[in-house]
Amino acid sequence: FANVGNTETNFSVLLYPYHKEFFPAKKGVRYYVSHGEGGFYILTNENAPNFKVLFMDEKSGDLRLLIDEMEDSPIDNILVFKDFLALEYRHNGLKTVGIYKGGKIQRIKFKEEPYALWLEDNYEYEQKYIRVAFSSLRTPKTIYDYDIEKGKLIKKWVEPVPNYERDLYETKRLWAISYDGTKIPISVVYRKDRLKMGENPLLLYGYGAYGHPIEPVFSKFIISLLDRGFIYAIAHVRGGGEFGDRWHKEGKFDKKKNTIYDFVECAEYLIIEGFTSKGKIAIMGGSAGGITVGGALNLKPHLFGCAVTIVPFVDVLNTMLDPSLPLTVQEYDEWGNPNDKYYYDYIKSYSPYENVKPNKYPPVLAITGLYDPRVGYWEPAKWILKLRENDTSKSPKLLLTEMEAGHMGIPGRYKYMEEVAIRYAFILKNIPPL
């Protein structure tokens, strides 16, 4: 019954069939409308970057605040039931679910951290439970029914993973301290019987852009590395959305270097805490994560044993100076417009391609797609060539161009698995397993 306004259109939120306008369209303001007992529930970011929930009486049209914006805890989604609301939101940087009833939010709690919890399909308006999905770095997707009155979780289904024994693995949540005192969460998983503090090789993943959080959820693929003694870690750096609007803003525009600094600080923290050692860290990132990985290589190449990048955005300055490319102009909202000298100078100061200089770089593999409309194949090609020309160690700098792939990778499940195998083979070639 509703049409939702956003930043790209002039739609207003309308009530069908009367076409009564709820709110006029405003630039940068979003409204998501649901109907429930006696009125409409509106999730909106108007004057609330992390979103708030309003209630509009369907008879009088009176509007009141139901759930106020929460600091560092954005509300991603709401489901309306007869006697309560179910909220997907973030708590302490983790994706979670809460029940709003009687003016309070009751959060569904799990002892295992880090994790992600989200709403599954819930079809009955008058149901007394909600169905949620849980996953962590060591726990496959698990479906629960949550009894709201009893506050009890009832396990319904676990994703089958052949030959996988969950109890062999351990997951932890760590906190690194960045250069400016900001605490950066790190999600870690390893095989318990293969942990030898200070000796384990480690794969560190990072992204940090567009306010997009990286969820610490289960992956079948990573198990092969864990069984070889690797530790897998995710650095939840600024620029992402783990803590909402603030976390994004502190890693964009003229604060983009925070993303790179955070990533490097996480690597150094893992060394200091004895999880690994210098030269045994493989780093990986894709798309905008190419800035994170490429920037880290320029900043402290000696820390890392190798790097893998997937469709990496590494030539930021030249791409942002070419408005004929499909995404350049709208990307000004994330990186700034380099036609403004202030942003030109700032982007130039961190763009991975621009800052390659003679140094001892570790082995690097860049994977790109010929038909990528977001990150042109020429970006990693130029970057790899420049690394080869400036690398005093003469270690491998490899470019793999998938001739049928776009930004989301090569089509087909088995071909994707082959690509993952190539990534891992490169890592194992350059960082021996335990």
Q: How would you summarize the topology of this molecule?
A:
Layout: E1 13-15, E2 20-23, E3 31-36, E4 39-44, E5 52-57, E6 63-67, E7 75-80, E8 85-91, E9 94-101, E10 104-107, E11 116-119, E12 129-135, E13 142-147, E14 152-158, E15 169-177, E16 183-191, E17 202-206, H1 223-226, E18 231-235, H2 245-249, H3 257-272, E19 281-286, H4 289-299, E20 304-310, H5 316-320, H6 328-335, H7 341-350, E21 364-369, H8 378-390, E22 397-402, H9 413-430
Parallel strand pairs: 17-18, 17-19, 19-20, 20-21, 21-22
Antiparallel strand pairs: 1-2, 3-4, 4-5, 5-6, 7-8, 8-9, 9-10, 11-12, 12-13, 13-14, 15-16, 16-18
Helix pairs in contact: 3-4
Could you explain the architecture of this structure?
The chain is 21% helix and 30% strand. The chain is built from nine helices and 22 strands. It has an eight-stranded mixed β-sheet with strand order 15-16-18-17-19-20-21-22, sandwiched between helices. The protein has a four-stranded antiparallel β-sheet with strand order 3-4-5-6, with no helix packed on it. Helix 3 (257-272) crosses helix 4 (289-299). The model is unreliable at 1-11 (pLDDT under 50).
